[in-house]
Write a structure and sequence with these properties.
The chain is about 30% helix and about 25% strand. By secondary structure, the chain is an alpha+beta fold. A hairpin with a 2-residue loop joins strand 4 and strand 5. The chain is globular and about 80 Å long.
Length: about 375
């Protein structure tokens, strides 16, 4: 069995549901320490974080990722235990296979190979790993980057192992991400009996036209770097559970993924304008989860393109599609940020899987990126 496959399975067997790490980072740290990396564990409010560095000079290339995984969902829907990885028909099945323990294993194996060949490489190579990417992410990468920045660390390049590929490994890399803005809306009505609607105010009926207006609003056209801003409702709750009671309140949760054509403040003002135009009695809370970022074509993108092409024979498509990633916490420091990882077809699903052969190819890509950036 290939070393990268064995390490992936070792990591997958650990039930590291957010924000738990369950020893994944210790396993990675032991391997990296054996290759000469300095190890620093940085736990913050119950979140496990790892900073491992090889070298002391600049430029600094950071491999970033997360050991936490999302919950499994109904175990009965899985063909095998999600935390007992199993290979079937050329695929490795289990939670975290693609998102993103396969990437973590490929990073470690690639770093071991690279440092063994080039112990005196230029600059520095580092790992920034957290156990809180799939959750609230308050005490993971964001907190670690703030602390490292305060200590004078300057990240030049960051390579994140998120599953970026669409159909085959390396066909797509992410060079940016849209911004993320969450909204929590509470519409106030008046509870009453369904037989006497004149004595009540149904918040669901009141909210419906405004929700329709929000859902069909054209927020922007996007630009060369980003698709248009999108608005989606994720939760709608109301009612007492009784069939004969008009509820007194309705709650809506929604999410924007926005381009650089708008700002969080602009979006909030436009939402409030729509709600006000519908004369709702409401409370609105907005939370900015990340601003959009875009890495322009430069040394990191060229290094990634060349490494991918060397392995699969074709340069990747550059994309900013998809959700958020921890790149939103690294990019504001001025670092170039790119995401390269396995095919994302099964992430967060039951029977999550990754092609076994792609794992060693991914390690080869990561090693090639190191050589392109840290070797003359």
């Amino acid at each position: 069995m290939l070393p990268v496959v064995r390490l992936t399975m070792d990591l997958m067997s650990r039930k590291s549901i957010t924000p738990l790490d369950e020893g994944c980072q210790a396993l990675m740290a032991d391997r990296l320490a054996d290759s000469g990396f300095g190890i620093r564990h940085m736990p913050i409010h119950g979140v496990s974080n790892l900073w491992a560095r090889h070298g002391t000079g600049s430029p600094l290339l950071v491999f970033a990722g997360h050991t936490d995984v999302v919950p499994t969902g109904a175990l009965a829907d899985w063909e095998s235990d999600p935390f007992e990885p199993e290979i079937r028909d050329g695929y490795l099945f289990g939670r975290g296979a693609a998102d993103m323990k396969g990437s973590l294993a490929a990073m470690v194996v690639a770093a071991e190979r690279f440092v063994s060949k080039h112990p005196s490489h230029q600059g520095s190579l580092a790992f920034l790993i957290t156990s809180d990417e799939e959750g609230d992410a308050y005490y993971g990468t964001e907190a670690v980057v703030k602390q490292l920045t305060a200590e004078g660390e300057v990240i030049d390049w960051a390579l994140i192992g998120e599953p970026s590929s669409s159909h085959i490994l390396g066909d797509t890399v992410k060079v940016g991400r849209r911004g993320s803005l969450l909204g929590r809306l509470r519409i106030k009505g008046k509870q009453g009996h369904v037989a006497y609607p004149d004595l009540a105010k149904n918040p669901v009926h009141l909210a419906a036209p405004a929700i329709l207006a929000l859902s069909i609003e054209h927020w922007d056209n996007g630009n060369d770097g980003f698709p248009p801003t999108s608005f989606q409702i994720s939760n709608f709750q109301s009612g007492t559970g009784a069939t004969n009671v008009i509820p007194g309140e309705a709650s809506v949760m929604f999410s924007f993924r926005f381009s650089t054509e708008v700002t969080a403040d602009t979006l909030e003002r436009r939402v409030r304008d729509i709600l006000d135009n519908h004369q709702l009695d409401y409370v609105l809370e907005m939370e900015l989860k990340g601003v959009p970022f875009l890495t322009e074509k430069g040394s990191l993108i060229r290094a990634v393109e060349d490494a991918v092409a060397t392995v699969v024979g074709k340069k990747p498509v550059l994309s900013t599609a998809g959700g958020t990633s921890d790149g939103r916490f690294i990019a504001p420091t001025g670092a170039q940020v790119v995401e390269l990882g396995p095919v994302n077809k099964t992430i967060h699903q039951v029977n999550e899987s990754v092609a076994v052969d792609s794992l060693d190819d991914l390690a080869k890509m990561y090693e090639g990126i190191m050589e392109n950036l840290l070797i003359d």
